[in-house]
Design goal:
Its main location: other. The chain is of the alpha+beta class. It has four domains: 120 residues, Fumarase C, Chain B, domain 1 (Orthogonal Bundle), CATH 1.10.275; 106 residues; 224 residues, Choline/Carnitine o-acyltransferase, domain 2 (Chloramphenicol Acetyltransferase, 2-Layer Sandwich); 198 residues, Chloramphenicol Acetyltransferase, CATH 3.30.559.10. The protein is 48% helix and 12% strand.
C-alpha cells in the first residue's frame, strides 16, 4: 500500500546533506551477511520448525515406522537389508545383558534415518511442485491437463491440517529474472508516458547497461539467490524502509477502517475491551501456529514469515538507519488518552483478562481526571518527526525516562483512546468519511505512536481503526488480523443489551499504571515543539476522500467474465487521464508470497493497451463495440502483468536489487539511476477480503470492513486503494496533497465514479447504471444516507451477538 512512497524515496535515503553516502561493505560480505541473517532466523525458530518442518509427516509417523520395524524384526524379517546389524556393531558393547537394548537403539537409529530421508523427499517433491506456475498463467476459468495433474500431486504431497509455518521449508525461492527480459519489459512499460526523444534516450541507456554492467550485477544477484532465503526482500526492508529518513506518518503508515455502516456499541471502553481481547486471542493462536496458512485455490500455500512480527514489535529510530525490535512476548498494552500514557496489563495469573475486565480498565482511564504533564501531551509527535531527529532525541529520552519508554516500546501494541467521535454520519456522509480517514492516517500528529507495529484507535463513539507501520509486513497480513478482530469482537464475544462487554468486572484488578515522563531537558522540549509543528503541517496537507460506490460491484464484473482487479485498474487509468489530461506511471502492489520470504512486486498498470482504450473512450467517433474490444485487450494485458509479477517475473524488484549491487560495487549506471528517479503519480492497491467465512454477508451485509488507505507517493500524485465489500459495493480511499495545484482527491473521486459507469455501459448488462445514476449530487447523498438507515437496526442486531 504505502510502499510506493518508500519505493520512490529509497534513493534519496542513501544521501546525507546532498552528498551520496557510499556503501563501503564489499558486496560479497553483504551477500554473506544476508545469508547469515537467514540462517539465524531459522535457528531461532528451531523447535517450532521441528514441529512444522516434518510436515506433511508428523512425529507420530516416526513412532509408527519404528513400531513397524520392530514388528518385522520380531517376525525375523530385516527391512533394513542388514543395515541394522551394522549399526549394532558400531554401538558400544555394554555386555550381553544389554544385547536387546542395542537392538532397540539400532532400530531407532535406522527408523530415524529412514524417516528423515522420507521427509526430505517429501519436502523436495513439494518444493518442485510449488515451483510450477503454469496454473497462474492460464486463462481464467480454463485448466489444462498438466495443471490438473499438478493439483492432484500437490494434494497428495501437501498433507492434512497444516500449521501456520508448515509449508515454509517447502516454498521455492524467488527466481532472479533474465536481465534482458527485465529491461525489455521496463522499456515497454515507460513507452506510453515518454516522448519519442526521451524514450530513444532511455533505450540507449538501457542498451549500454546491458552491454557493460548487467552481466556482472546479475551474477552477484544469482549468487545471493542461491545463498539467502530471498534475493531481494531483506534489501527491500533495509533500503526502502529502515534507511528512509522521512517521517513515518503519511509517508510509511497506512490505515484500516471499522465496519462502514455498523457500530456494535457506542461505549468507547466496551469496544476497546472486546477489540483488544480479540487481538490478543489472535496473538495466542499465532503463537501456537493455529492460524492456517493462506492457500490460493485452497491448495497453493503462501509464505507466512511476515506474521511473526505483528505483535510486540517496534521500529526503533537510528541516526542512519532504523531497526526492528521484536519481543517474544508482552503482557501489557500502552494506552494514550488526553495527553497521558498508561500501562494496562492484559493478563492475570498467566491467563488473559476477560473483555469485561479490560473494559473496566479502560473506563478507569477515561474517568481519570488527572491532567497531562508539561510536554507529555505532545511527546508522541517525535515519532512523526524525521527519523534522524527522533533518533537523537530518543537517546536523551532513554536516559531521562527509560522506564516509561520501555513500557511503550515493549507493549504488545499501542492503543489510542480518542476524545472525538468518528465514522459515517447521517448529516454529512461525505465529509464525515473523509474526516474519519484523515483521523486514522494522521490524527493530530501527537496521539499515535507511529513506531509501533500498529496502533489501535478507539473513538469516543465506539468506532475503531488501525494505523499500521509498514516496514515489518505488508497490508494482507494486518488485514488478516483485522478481519479476525472485527468478526470475533462482534460475532463471538458480543455485547450485552446495554452495550457493555459480556461478563462481570473484576474489582480486585489494580488501577492502570500512569507512566511518568521526566522531561526537564530544554532541548527535548524544543524538539517536541518542532516535531509537533512539522507533524501538524504534514497532517493538514493531506487531502483524504473516501466514498462507497454502490451501483455495482464484483458480481456485475464477474458476469462480464472479467477480473475485478483489472476492471478497476483500467477504469482508474480512464479516470486519471480525465483528471490530469495525461498518462503517468502507475504503481499497483502485487504480492510475491508464492516464494519464501517474498513481499511485493510492482504491476505497472499504465500499459499501451490501457492508453489505447482511454483514447478510444475520449474519441467521440469510436463506437461502444470498438471501445469494448480495446477494453478487453487492456484487461488481458493487465492480467498478464499481474501474473508475471506474482510469479517472480516482474520488473521493479529486479531493477532495485541490481541498483543496490551497483552501489556496493561503486559502479555508476546512468540507466539504473534514471529508473530510480521516476515518480509514481498514481499509486494503487486493492485490499482483499481474505476470510469471507468469518462474515455472513447474506444475513449481515453491513458487517464487512470498509478497507483502508495510504498517503500519495508523489507530491503531485494520488494514492488510491479500493476494497470490494460483498458483491455489490466498492469502497475507494483517495489521498493527495493539498499543497499541489494539480491534484484534488474529491475531483478524482468523481472521475472514478464516472469512469466506472462509462466502462459498465459498454456492456449490455451495465447500460442501465447510467440511467440509475442520473440526477443531482444531492440525490446521490440521499442515496448514501439510505444505507445509513440500516445502521440503527444493524447496531441493535449486533447486540444479540449472532453466531456465524
Amino acid at each position: 500500500m504505502a510502499e510506493a512512497h518508500q519505493a520512490v524515496g529509497f534513493r534519496p535515503s542513501l544521501t546525507s546533506d546532498g552528498v551520496e553516502v557510499e556503501l563501503s561493505a564489499p558486496v560479497l560480505q553483504e551477500i554473506y551477511l544476508s545469508g547469515l541473517r537467514s540462517w539465524k532466523r531459522h535457528l531461532s525458530r528451531f523447535w517450532n520448525d521441528f514441529l512444522t518442518g516434518v510436515f506433511p509427516a508428523s512425529p507420530l509417523s516416526w513412532l509408527f515406522l519404528f513400531s513397524a520395524i520392530q514388528l518385522a524384526w520380531f517376525l525375523q524379517l530385516d527391512p533394513s537389508l542388514g543395515l541394522m546389524e551394522k549399526i549394532k556393531e558400531l554401538l558400544p558393547d555394554w555386555g550381553g545383558q544389554h544385547h536387546r537394548l542395542r537392538g532397540i537403539l539400532a532400530a531407532a537409529l535406522f527408523a530415524s534415518c529412514l524417516w528423515g530421508a522420507l521427509i526430505f523427499t517429501l519436502h523436495v517433491a513439494l518444493r518442485l511442485l510449488l515451483s510450477y506456475h503454469g496454473w497462474l498463467l492460464e486463462p481464467h476459468g480454463a485448466m489444462s491437463s498438466p495443471t490438473k495433474t499438478w493439483l492432484a500431486l500437490v494434494r497428495i504431497f501437501s498433507g492434512r491440517h497444516p500449521m501456520l509455518f508448515s509449508y515454509q521449508r517447502s516454498l521455492p525461492r524467488q527466481p532472479v529474472p533474465s536481465v534482458q527480459d527485465t529491461v525489455r519489459k521496463y522499456l515497454e512499460s515507460v513507452r506510453p508516458v515518454l516522448s519519442d526523444e526521451d524514450f530513444d534516450w532511455t533505450a540507449v541507456l538501457a542498451q549500454e547497461f546491458l552491454r557493460l554492467q548487467a552481466s556482472l550485477l546479475q551474477w552477484y544477484l544469482r549468487l545471493k539467490s542461491w545463498w539467502a532465503s530471498n534475493y531481494v526482500s531483506d534489501w527491500w526492508e533495509e533500503f526502502v524502509y529502515l534507511r528512509s529518513r522521512n517521517p513515518l506518518m503519511v509517508n510509511s503508515n497506512y490505515y484500516m477502517m471499522d465496519f462502514l455502516y455498523v457500530t456494535p456499541t457506542p461505549l468507547q471502553a466496551a469496544r476497546a475491551g472486546n477489540a483488544i481481547h480479540a487481538l490478543l486471542l489472535y496473538r495466542h493462536r499465532l503463537n501456537r501456529q493455529e492460524i492456517p496458512p493462506t492457500l490460493l485455490m485452497g491448495m497453493r500455500p503462501l509464505c507466512s514469515a511476515q506474521y511473526e512480527k505483528i505483535f510486540n514489535t517496534t521500529r526503533i529510530p537510528g541516526v542512519q538507519r532504523d531497526y526492528i525490535h521484536h519481543l517474544h512476548d508482552s503482557q501489557h498494552v500502552a494506552v494514550f488518552h488526553r495527553g497521558r500514557f498508561f500501562r494496562v496489563g492484559t493478563h492475570s495469573r498467566n491467563s488473559l483478562l476477560s473483555p469485561r475486565a479490560l473494559e473496566q480498565q479502560f473506563q478507569r482511564i477515561l474517568d481519570d481526571p488527572s491532567p497531562a504533564c508539561p510536554y507529555e501531551e505532545h511527546l508522541a509527535a517525535l515519532t512523526a518527526a524525521p527519523r534522524d531527529t527522533w533518533a537523537q532525541v530518543r537517546t536523551s529520552l532513554k536516559t531521562q525516562a527509560a522506564e516509561a519508554l520501555e513500557v511503550v516500546e515493549g507493549a504488545a501494541f499501542f492503543v489510542s483512546l480518542d476524545a472525538e467521535p468518528a465514522g459515517l454520519t447521517r448529516e454529512d456522509p461525505a465529509a464525515s468519511l473523509d474526516a474519519y480517514a484523515h483521523a486514522l492516517l494522521a490524527g493530530r500528529g501527537h496521539d499515535r505512536w507511529f513506531d509501533k507495529s500498529f496502533t489501535l484507535i478507539v473513538f469516543s463513539n465506539g468506532k475503531l481503526g488501525l494505523s499500521v507501520e509498514h516496514s515489518w509486513a505488508d497490508c494482507p497480513i494486518s488485514g488478516h488480523m483485522w478481519e479476525f478482530t472485527l468478526a470475533t469482537e462482534c460475532f463471538q464475544l458480543g455485547y450485552s443489551a446495554d452495550g457493555h462487554c459480556k461478563g462481570h468486572p473484576d474489582p480486585t484488578l489494580p488501577q492502570p499504571q500512569r507512566l511518568q515522563w521526566d522531561l526537564p531537558d530544554q532541548q527535548i522540549h524544543s524538539s517536541i515543539s518542532v516535531a509537533l509543528r512539522g507533524a501538524k503541517i504534514l497532517s493538514e496537507n493531506v487531502d483524504c476522500h473516501v466514498f462507497p460506490f454502490s451501483l455495482f460491484g464484483k458480481s456485475f464484473i464477474r458476469r462480464c467474465h472479467l477480473s475485478s482487479d483489472s476492471f478497476i485498474q483500467i477504469a482508474l487509468q480512464l479516470a486519471h487521464f480525465r483528471d490530469r489530461g495525461q498518462f503517468c506511471l502507475t504503481y499497483e502492489s502485487a504480492m510475491t508470497r508464492l516464494f519464501l520470504e517474498g513481499r511485493t512486486e510492482t504491476v505497472r498498470s499504465c500499459t499501451r493497451e490501457a492508453c489505447s482504450f482511454v483514447r478510444a473512450m475520449e474519441d467521440k467517433e469510436k463506437t461502444d463495440p470498438q471501445c469494448l474490444a480495446l477494453f478487453r485487450v487492456a484487461v488481458d494485458k493487465h492480467q498478464a502483468l499481474l501474473k508475471a509479477a506474482m510469479s517472480g517475473q516482474g520488473v521493479d524488484r529486479h531493477l532495485f536489487a541490481l541498483y543496490i549491487v551497483s552501489r556496493f560495487l561503486h559502479l555508476q549506471s546512468p540507466f539504473l539511476t534514471q529508473v530510480h528517479s521516476e515518480q509514481w503519480q498514481l499509486s494503487t492497491s486493492q485490499i482483499p477480503v481474505q476470510q469471507m467465512h468469518l462474515f455472513d454477508i447474506h444475513n449481515y451485509p453491513d458487517y464487512v470492513s470498509s478497507g483502508g488507505g495510504f498517503g500519495p507517493a508523489d507530491e503531485h500524485g494520488y494514492g488510491v486503494s479500493y476494497i470490494f465489500m460483498g458483491d455489490d459495493m466498492i469502497t475507494f480511499h483517495i489521498s493527495s496533497k493539498k499543497s499541489s495545484t494539480k491534484t484534488d482527491s474529491h475531483r478524482l473521486g468523481q472521475h472514478i465514479e464516472d469512469a466506472l459507469l462509462d466502462v459498465a455501459s459498454l456492456f449490455q448488462a451495465g447500460q442501465h447504471f447510467k440511467r440509475q445514476f442520473r440526477g443531482s449530487r444531492e440525490e446521490d447523498s440521499r442515496r448514501r444516507c439510505g444505507f445509513l438507515s440500516r445502521q440503527t437496526g444493524a447496531s441493535k442486531t449486533s447486540m444479540t451477538s449472532p453466531e456465524i
